[in-house]
Amino acid sequence: MKLFVIVLVAVAVVVTNSLPVEVSTRKTYKGYKIHRLSLDSQKQLDYLVNLNEFLMENDMNGEIAFLTETALLAPDFRKPVSVLVSPGQEVEFLKRTEEQAIQHVVADADVAKSLEAERYMSPETKRTVKNGGMTWDAYHRYQTIERYLQHLANTYPELVQLTTLGKSYEGRYLYLLKLGKARADGKTKPAVWMDAQIHAREWIAAATVTHMVNKMVTEYGTNSTSTRMLDQIDWYVLPVINVDGYEFTHTVDRWWRKTRRVNPFNVAIGADPNRNYDHMWMHQGATQQANTDVYAGAYPFSEIENVYLTDAVLERKAQIKTLLTFHSAAEVWLLPWGYDSSVPDDFEELRQMGLKATQALEKLYGIRYGVGSSTQLLGAAAGATDDWGKAKGMIKYAVTVELRDQGYLFNLPPEQIIPSGLETFEAINVVAEVVYKEYGATLD
After folding, report:
1. HSE-up of residue 203 (Cα within 13 Å, Cβ side)
2. Longest CA–CA separation in the chain, Å
3. Of these residues, 402, 423, 426, 433, which one is catalytic?
4. Mind listing the pLDDT tens digit for each residue in 395-404?
5. Cβ–Cβ under 8 Å, residues 381 and 338
């Protein structure tokens, strides 16, 4: 990486994951572009992995930032690599990638303009939000989501219960919804757990989950599918896990991924909460380098948000039969294990559910999802939610759903929120059918 030293050391770098940032305006990314690289050899992959490590080690990822995790690319060179490049580094970056015969296209020629467009709200939407409502034609701040959850619980008390799990590191409340119609015969229904937004920048995750929640609740009694889903299944929904990081992406840095906890042993802020669970922690696909996006934390469960999630799941362990954790953006249905290439003994049953669910999803808009283990499809990522759910939560169907990308990666335009919600609703409907057929209802 010596080739980059002469160019990069002289640059005044804006570091997104160093000391706490107190600013009144968000980072605009003026002049930045996103380049999408296509790889066809191990040599090219090794070059990018080494470059990414060099940038991280030298706190230069504010100038060239890999939006695609290079650590997850080894199994499949067909997956493109998206790289955010500052105007001061573009010429040198392209020169070096061309020397490696790496093909590239400009995926976004004006990142600042795209980010402004992503934040746009129509006057009607602004009025709705001001009056305490929520829409799915825009991405919303956490306060708006909070008010919406409270509105659901107040408006539909026979279908919705709202519980506070605790406060985040920065003092925001985490909320858990329980959706479902109580059975008249006193039987306990099987449950499906859904969570989203463990990675702060993956905005479509929370938007998709809240859209599906809204559809189930508001269409109960008029839509036969929504009615059946709430009659047969209880749904536990944690719409935003990483509340501090999510808010930070709205106020300071759109591409922030981690939590916002001040690390006791390092000046870098936050950890990757999806590497912070205690099952096979730090086995593969994570690091102890605190200024990276896959920093696993100083120890398992160092992040309080992970503690809240696992406590909530374990309290309902006997009832929860499926765990769905929503991410973006790779268009895959990921199954355990994520810590190595092995799979659980019942992997084929998990895969069959995934195939049925993604086939139902595909029928709506034609988006085809891959189905397989996390390691097989994206590479090792030890310490993740689905692995913990399967191994420690003893939940049979534990799944990470990577939502639609459509070439936009994390910046899916707001007009795609509703399509994402509708197609994913078809998938979770299949999940509900499989779970109810397998487990039915049991007497208390």
Report:
1. 29
2. 74
3. 402
4. 999 999 999 9
5. yes
